[in-house]
Write a structure and sequence with these properties.
Layout: H1 14-34, H2 37-65, H3 71-75
Length: 76
């Protein structure tokens, strides 16, 4: 005979879970309503910086792979 293991969700009834889900949905809707143009501009700025850093890193790798070295490395 196998006994099913109890889970933390066993103590909740479906009505409790439905009300909790409704609270989470309301919280998410409030956060989405609060987002504005400044938040969108910030996200776009972060993405632009990330892409610039990625491009500069790839450029440095290409320069090093082709044999070009930093000026300080040439002096030695």
């Amino acid at each position: 005979m196998t006994v099913a293991a109890a889970t933390p969700l066993d103590e909740f009834v479906p009505a409790d879970l439905d009300s909790f889900a409704a609270e989470l949905d309301a919280l998410g809707a409030g956060i989405r309503e609060d987002l504005g143009a400044s938040d969108a501009a910030y996200i776009r700025r972060v993405i632009a910086v990330q892409r610039g850093l990625e491009a500069s890193g790839a450029g440095c790798c290409c320069l090093l792979a082709t044999g070009l070295r930093w000026p300080a490395a040439r002096a030695s």
